């Protein structure tokens, strides 16, 4: 059969309208590798399979990684996704589906790409990056300085210290009007995560001075702070947004199940008519 399960699901992800649930869908950063792959090549087929696996896995997991191998080392593709630690599962699934859709339009025929939305991170490449610590700065953003407020900066530093001293890949903290958040990609070990966050938090404190908010995204972790609600990044569901997320989650599951049944039926027809043709 010329039509594969991967291509059908990618078509649905690209063209099925996914409603905006919250600020977790907002674009943070993205990038594409300079290297291109050949259209209709084994690498493209493996990439389609990888992206399908990411979308499917996000319906039941907040993090997963995959390696799709081929007949040649040049055909291998590596990829992972991770949702923010406080994101509900329906919102995670929708965020990853939206990320895959955006990567498809943003990085056409590139052998590697990464995208960070407020609620999730997706990356793929033709060289292995899974389990490799990377403290390269990919996004550095500070609000304009409002002057040095000693009390405010002391609370900010206390929140950042609490993030650095906490455990686990996802960390949140707060003190009065100061909120902080940090997260590592879960392919890192506990020690590598701590090392990455130490770097991100240190850069955030030194670079953002008296700013009312700051973001420091490294390749495998990030740290953020906000004062007085100046930069809202925490999950925010209003009105019917959570129920909309559950509906979208159910739709994604239904589409995946429906496509699987179609493929099974088409395969059955192929066998029947192929057998008669002998």
Briefly summarize what is shown.
This protein is of the alpha+beta class and 278 residues long. Helices cover 42% and strands 22% of the residues. The chain is elongated and about 60 Å long.
Characterization of the model:
The chain is an alpha+beta fold and 278 residues long. It has two domains: 5-129, Gnk2 domain, C-X8-C-X2-C motif (Killer Toxin P4, Chain A), CATH 3.30.430; 137-227, Killer Toxin P4, Chain A (2-Layer Sandwich). It has six helices and ten strands. The protein has helices at residues 5-15, 42-57, 89-106, 150-165, 190-208, 241-277, and strands at residues 27-32, 63-68, 77-83, 113-117, 120-125, 137-142, 170-175, 178-184, 213-218, 221-227. A five-stranded antiparallel sheet has the order 1-4-5-3-2, with helices on one face. Strands 6-9-10-8-7 form a five-stranded antiparallel sheet, covered by helices on one side. β4 and β5 form a beta hairpin. α1 (5-15) crosses α3 (89-106) and α3 crosses α6 (241-277). The longest helix has 37 residues, at 241-277. It is elongated. The relative contact order is 0.16. Mean pLDDT is 82; it is low at 1-21 and 235-268.
Note the beta-strand portion.
15-25%
Overall mean pLDDT stands at 82
What is the helix tally? 6
Q: Architecture of the largest domain, CATH level 2? A: 2-Layer Sandwich
| Form type | elongated
- The poorly predicted ranges are 1-21, 235-268
Can you tell me the number of structural domains? Answer: 2
CATH superfamily name of the largest domain?
Gnk2 domain, C-X8-C-X2-C motif
What is the CA–CA distance across the termini? 17 Å
Please write the CATH class name of the largest domain: Alpha Beta
Largest sheet: 5 strands, antiparallel
What is the tally of beta strands? 10
Radius of gyration: 21 Å
Helix content: 40-55%
Q: Report the structural category.
A: alpha+beta
The helix-strand sequence is HEHEEHEEEHEEHEEH
Fold-level CATH name of the largest domain: Killer Toxin P4, Chain A
Strand order of the largest sheet: 1-4-5-3-2
């Amino acid at each position: 059969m010329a039509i594969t399960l991967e291509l059908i699901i990618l078509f649905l992800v690209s063209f099925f309208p996914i409603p905006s649930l919250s600020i977790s869908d907002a674009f943070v950063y993205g990038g594409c590798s300079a290297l291109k792959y050949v259209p209709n090549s084994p690498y493209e087929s493996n990439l389609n399979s990888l992206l399908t696996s990411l979308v499917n896995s996000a319906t039941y997991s907040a993090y997963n990684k995959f390696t799709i191998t081929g007949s040649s080392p040049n055909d291998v593709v590596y990829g992972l996704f991770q949702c923010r630690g406080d994101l509900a599962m329906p919102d995670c699934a929708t965020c990853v589906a939206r990320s895959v859709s955006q990567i498809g339009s943003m990085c056409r025929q590139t052998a590697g790409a990464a995208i960070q939305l407020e609620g999730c991170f997706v990356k793929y490449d033709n060289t292995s990056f899974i389990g490799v610590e990377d403290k390269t700065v990919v996004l550095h953003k500070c609000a304009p300085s409002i002057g040095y407020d000693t009390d405010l900066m002391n609370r900010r530093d206390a929140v950042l210290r609490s993030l650095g001293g906490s455990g686990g890949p996802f960390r949140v903290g707060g003190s009065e009007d100061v909120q902080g958040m940090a997260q590592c990609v879960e392919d890192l070990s506990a020690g590598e995560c701590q090392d990455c966050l130490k770097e991100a938090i240190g850069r955030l404190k030194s670079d953002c001075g008296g700013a009312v908010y700051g973001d420091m995204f490294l390749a495998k972790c990030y740290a953020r702070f906000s004062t007085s609600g100046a930069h809202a990044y925490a999950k925010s569901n209003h009105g019917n947004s959570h129920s909309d997320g559950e509906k979208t989650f159910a739709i994604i599951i239904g589409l995946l199940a429906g496509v699987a049944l179609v493929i099974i039926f088409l395969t059955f027809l192929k066998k029947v008519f192929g057998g008669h043709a002998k």
